[in-house]
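Data deposition worksheet. Section B asks for the primary sequence of the deposited chain exactly as it was used as input, without tags or linkers unless they were present during the calculation. Section C holds the resulting structure in token form. Section D is free text for depositor observations; keep each observation to a single sentence. Incomplete worksheets are returned to the depositor.
Section A, Depositor: J.P.
Section B:
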Amino acid sequence: MKKWTLSLLAAGLLTAPATQAQELPDASPRQKLEQDVGLTAFTVNYSRPGKKERAIFGGLVPFGEIWRTGANKATTISFDTPVIFQGEEIPAGRYSLFTKPGEETWTVIFNKDTDLWGTGDYDPEKDVARLEVKTQSVESTENLTIGFDKLRTQGAHFFIKWERTGVFIPLEVPTMRTAMRNIEEALAEAEEAKKWRVYRNAAGFYHNNELDPEKALDYMKQSLERNEESWYSHWLHAEILASMDSYDDAVNAARQAMEIGKTQAEEDDGSFPYAKRIEEGIRRWKEKS
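Section C:
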């Protein structure tokens, strides 16, 4: 009996009880995409079916019908601030992303129900936005690809591409409004001994984004009133002054940055790597004064 049982096992006619679930590859692999645009965090979860020599749009994906925008469970997108997609503001949240492809235009749909498998229970009453987006020709894409392009501080393009078709949706995020709120909160919460750095960060944000230069200068002055020992603070002060065409004052501030930077470098037994940059700034601003 023992030899007979062993023979059956060897032939695969008897199997041992399964001890764990099978793990098999998905024909349409899942992808989780995370992307920051400015101060807004986006997350997209979707499956990526392959073309596999099939006709996709107008074939596998019929024109004029609601599509889950992927395979398996419906694609979802989430963002933690309000976002303006192609001129329409959508509140922060998590949404299913459905589409209705057409030959020249797609309807892109944001829907509140995020637990759908396919389109069987799709309810248009739960739509929060429907965008009409023109298609564009793109390089051949084997797998469905969703992502972000043309990233800027205040916006980007959100795209869906497959086969030789793409749709690109411009979006805007409230980076400036969020940043200004963060500045006010940071100033209110910071310890007095550390507040100079918060003021300097605020000044740098205003300056680097070419916002109100007077506000940038005010923040910078308040930083220097609390701490004058940072060479970088004086250099940022110089750059702000130069942006306001106050070149003589910019030169003086840059010279202070140079003096402090070199002194600190000597104390640390090292060279001052920003010396050439500051010297160039002084030379350029002296020519304009």
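Section D:
Residues 26-172 form one domain.
Confidence is low (pLDDT under 50) at residues 1-19.
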